[in-house]
Amino acid sequence: MQIIWNSDPENWGDGGTGTRTYSVLRSGTLIVPALSYGTTSYNDTTGTNETNYVYRIRYNNGCGLSSSTLGVTATDHIDTEPCPDIGNVLLVSKSGTNAVITWSANACSDLANYRIFGSAYYSDPFPSAWDVLGNPVSNIFYDLLLSNYIAYKVLAVDDCGNISSN
InterPro entries in the record, alphabetically (predicted)? Predict the structure, then answer.
């Protein structure tokens, strides 16, 4: 869970001097005691997935005073659902010395990129005998016309690394 906050509260209460730090509290429990001033985010990897927590940031000044944010409730959901399949329709055209491979864009809300595979033989077992050719973020890929690849396959990869099947 990534927690992000403003660098400064309205008033640190220290007249602008002294050491300033941030503390991160998860549901009232201190999980990070003193992050350096200027830090504005923390990635909490110690919570339990699918559990609601209230995160607060405590602003600490060098005079021993502190103030906390009101807090926000957050739940880290596990994304195990891959993007929909791309399908088996790839369009191949020629542009100069390249084969241009295009496909229908995937409308998945958390699409990170596509993974392009190539093989010299249609009968090669997928994916073990196919090569990863690239990971473009758009629905177009260029391969040299002189390459050994005659078969291509495209899968979608989401932000959590889940890969579509096909």
Answer: Ig-like_fold
Closest CA to 105 of 145, 150, 136: 136
Pick from 58, 25, 60: nearest CA to 44 = 25
Number of domains comprising the chain:
2
CA distances in angstroms from 11 to 4, 8, 79, 127, 146, listed in the order given: 19, 8, 39, 58, 66
**Cα four-point dihedral sign 124, 125, 130, 136:** positive
How far is CA 163 from its chain centroid? 14
Cα(114)–Cα(138) distance, integer angstroms? 7
Given 75, 109, 124, which residue is the final one in a domain?
75
